[in-house]
Structure formats: structure tokens, C-alpha cells
Specification:
This protein is an alpha+beta fold. The chain has two domains: 6-73; 79-282. The protein has twelve helices and six strands.
């Protein structure tokens, strides 16, 4: 089947001017099905016909979100790896920040990892290595939990966490893992009920890091006490490693009620769709 050409796309865009809303909806659907190839023409039309922006912008947004959905289907090819976590976390960031330059932010992660490596004596004990990394991440870089505005969606978007130096537990933990893994630190995420931690899992030193609370170090017993006091009870499985799919799913689920509260049900539904895509594809691997 031949792809629509420039004239075809241009003709469809012209039909968006129609006064019949059913026609506009049908034409919008056709353009969305064309996908990313239509976006440059839609942008040009918005520039030359500003009065059409209210009809073109939703079409562009629908195409963009569909492209993200396709990208989510590709996350599973990375398996349960830090690479998969990074790719998925930045896809979530792109949902919230359409114009964000993800390549620029991955470069920032590389630069921070380089700085952190320079602060660490690799011949030190595992305990001292973690101490030096925490000094860099929480003190020098100033990353901290956003307890004042916990419900902001920006707390879950990696680019915004980097810019603002604040976020919720899972967002900060993912960032901590992505930087630490670049310098070989044995880190993984642990999604406990009501909270999210990072485990530093060296052969001779195992400890949990609470990234939301300035890198507080917690033993297994500390975690158990916290969970019991919080009303969740305790099971040993609560402290098991969280697979990448589970971490990304939890990040997406955190955002859904925020958009529902903002009366943006369409965005909430898209996030639910992303979760299905993530679960569907990985369930066949």
C-alpha cells in the first residue's frame, strides 16, 4: 500500500476546516493513521493558518503519543536491564515533556557519572564507595525528595527531576540507579508497599538507600520496622528486587490519578494503554 504523499496530506489538512464535526473527526483519524510523516505538514499548516491550530494540535499530540506507545513495545528487547530502565523512564519523561531533548539528558547522566567516578576511590571498601557516591548525589548535586509538592507530575519525569533536583521516591531512585550503574555500582530497585528504595548489593556489603530521604541507609530490620509501622505488615518478598517492567509500570500508575485529578482523562487512558503495551510485549519474552 502506497504511503500518502505531500498533496494527499495537504488535502486532508485542508478538510480540517470543515464545519461538520463528524467530518473533522474522521479526517483527524485518517491523519493520525498516517503517523509521524504527517507532522511536518501539520506544523506548517499551523504556522500559515493559526486559526486551525485548535484542530491541528490535538492531531499532532495524538500522533506523538502513538509514537511513544510504539516505542514502549520496544522496551522489552532490552530485557531486565538498566538500559531497559533508562529507555522506559525517558519515554515516560517524553510523555510529560514533548519538547525535551532526551539525548541531552542522557549526556547529563554520563557527565554526572564521570564526576561521581572521580570522587570515588575504587580501592576503598564497598561501604566507603557507597558513602562517596551518596555524598556526590545528595550533597554535591543536591537531589532530594519533594515533600512539599509530592503530587506534581514533574516528580516522575526524569528530565524534570534532573532540572529541579527533586522528585518522588521512585523517580529519584531510578536516577540514582542510572548514574550509579554507569560506574559499576551494584544497584537495583526495590518497590515496597507505599515506598521505593534502592538496594546496594555488593558481596560484602548489602544495604538499602532511601533516595527520598537524602540517602538514609536502612538495614532489612529497618525496612521491616518501617513497613509494619506504616500498616503494611512485612513479608520477605517486599524487599526483593523489582524487575524493570514492574518499576516502569509503577511509574506510569503513579501518574494516572494525577491526570485524572487534573480532569485530563485522555492522558490517563494513554498511560493505562502504555501499561498494557509494556505487559503484553514482555509477557511473550
Amino acid at each position: 500500500m502506497n504511503r500518502p504523499g505531500e498533496k494527499d496530506i495537504g488535502s486532508l489538512i485542508t478538510l480540517l476546516e470543515d464545519e461538520d464535526q463528524k467530518i473533522v473527526a474522521t479526517i483527524s483519524g485518517h491523519i493520525v493513521n498516517i503517523g509521524a510523516a504527517a507532522v511536518p505538514y501539520l506544523r506548517e499548516a499551523t504556522a500559515t493558518q493559526p486559526t486551525l491550530a485548535h484542530r491541528i494540535d490535538p492531531v499532532v499530540e495524538e500522533i506523538r503519543v502513538n509514537e511513544l506507545g510504539s516505542a514502549f513495545l520496544g522496551v522489552s528487547k532490552h530485557g531486565d536491564t538498566t538500559t531497559g530502565l533508562e529507555v522506559g523512564a525517558f519515554l515516560i519523561a517524553q510523555f510529560g515533556s514533548p519538547n525535551s531533548d532526551i539525548h541531552a539528558y542522557t549526556s547529563k547522566l554520563d557527565a554526572m557519572a564521570k564526576e561521581a567516578r572521580e570522587r570515588i576511590d575504587q580501592q576503598s571498601s564497598s561501604k566507603d564507595i557507597l558513602k562517596a557516591f551518596n555524598q556526590y548525589f545528595f550533597v554535591e548535586q543536591g537531589f532530594h525528595g519533594n515533600s512539599t509538592n509530592y503530587e506534581e507530575a514533574e516528580n516522575s519525569f526524569l528530565d524534570r527531576i534532573i532540572d529541579r533536583r527533586t522528585g518522588i521516591p521512585i523517580g529519584l531512585s531510578v536516577l540514582y540507579i542510572l548514574i550509579g550503574s554507569r560506574i559499576g555500582l551494584p544497584l537495583h530497585g526495590v518497590g515496597t508497599p507505599g515506598h521505593f528504595l534502592v538496594k546496594y548489593d555488593a558481596k560484602n556489603y548489602k544495604i538499602f538507600v532511601d533516595c527520598f530521604n537524602n540517602g538514609t541507609l536502612l538495614t532489612d530490620k529497618d525496612c521491616a520496622r518501617f513497613l509494619i509501622r506504616s500498616g503494611h505488615g512485612f513479608k520477605a518478598s517486599y524487599l526483593h528486587r523489582s524487575p524493570v517492567r514492574s518499576i516502569l509500570t509503577r511509574m506510569l500508575r503513579n501518574l494516572i490519578p494525577l491526570y485524572e485529578t487534573k480532569e485530563q482523562p485522555a492522558k490517563a487512558e494513554k498511560l493505562k494503554h502504555f501499561i498494557k503495551l509494556l505487559q503484553h510485549r514482555t509477557s511473550h519474552n
